[in-house]
Design brief:
Length: 317
């Protein structure tokens, strides 16, 4: 489904609310449900719930109120009903709004792409009956939203994204250095075991220190990494001289040096390889999201079984 986004550098509440229709066809993977709180989500745990699972032969101690009289009459042997216990799953959106995210040469800013992905995930979670929470951070602000149910939770997340100071401050504005390690540590404090966590970022400065809280998150949660990047970060444009503006600074980019272009391409490849290795080691679903791709199409193709996301087995498995 193609989305018509008028402003490629900013987001608005109406634009993100308008994505609710596109989210109707997106299904968040169920996977392992570890949450202990009762609710509308099915888990592998069996017990007295609301969803019928199967019938089996009656055993001493079974509740006689659960006798399956139809199967009993048909087979001549007493059968009892088993139910699949309903469990609720928290869905977290962890979204990076630091300065490098406010950039693109094609499509929309990485920050705008991230905001649309976050809104689509939140609307899809609502459709699935999940609770929605989030962590939104930049150099200037850090906001934690505890998971809640209903449309109010989605609108709360959208308003928090749209009203973040990162959208209005100039690129040259100062701010505290917000490391990915710190933002992931904060996420660990609010994400309960059994959550489905979406990390949306370009993952700059994802160093070995940041990998520690990330690995700990993966032990008891399902994690999806949405790697947002621009085509210029992947490969330099054809040979020539290009005028580039970065945070008020202007300079010329000369791409006529083939050796330099090859090194540039290899640097991005090494960055992607590291993310793929990290995802394989921790059983993370990695989904590359380029700025000129439609966010709804990315999620539809990446989250479905056998989709474009990367979820390799860890080395030696």
């Amino acid at each position: 489904m193609l989305l018509n986004v008028a402003d490629p550098v900013r987001v608005s509440v109406p634009a993100l609310v308008g994505l609710s229709r596109a989210a109707a066809s997106i299904r968040l993977g169920r996977g392992r449900i570890l949450s202990r709180q009762s609710g509308d989500y099915q888990s592998p745990f069996r017990g007295r719930g609301m969803e019928f699972d199967e019938s089996r032969l009656y055993q001493p101690g079974d509740d006689i109120r659960n006798i399956d009289w139809r199967v009993t009459a048909r087979t001549g042997k007493t059968h009892t009903k088993l139910f699949r216990e309903e469990r609720e799953r928290p869905v977290f959106v962890w979204m990076d709004l630091r300065r490098p995210m406010h950039f693109a040469t094609r499509g929309r800013y990485k920050s705008v792409q991230a905001a649309q992905l976050a809104a689509l995930i939140a609307w899809s979670a609502l459709n699935n009956g999940d609770r929605v929470g989030g962590v939104i951070f930049s150099e200037h602000e850090h906001h934690e939203l505890k998971p809640q149910r209903g449309k109010t939770a989605v609108l709360r997340l959208i308003n928090r994204i749209v009203n973040d100071a990162a959208w209005s401050l100039p690129a040259s504005a100062g701010g505290d250095r917000q490391s990915l390690e710190h933002a992931l540590q904060r996420l660990r404090r609010v994400a309960r075991p059994g959550s489905l966590i979406f990390l949306i970022s370009d993952f700059r400065e994802l160093d070995s220190q940041a990998e520690i809280p990330l690995a700990r998150l993966c032990r008891h949660n399902e994690v999806v990494m949405l790697f947002v990047y621009d085509r210029l970060e992947e490969e330099l444009p054809p040979p020539g001289r290009y005028r580039v503006i970065d945070g008020g600074r202007e300079f010329l980019l000369d791409t006529s040096d083939s050796h330099l272009a090859g090194q540039y391409r290899q640097q991005f490849r090494a960055r992607l390889d590291r993310l793929q290795h990290l995802s394989a080691t921790n059983r993370i679903l990695l989904l590359p999201c380029r700025t000129d791709a439609e966010p709804s199409s990315l999620l539809l193709s990446g989250l479905k079984p056998g989709g474009r996301g990367t979820k390799a087995k860890p080395p030696g498995a």
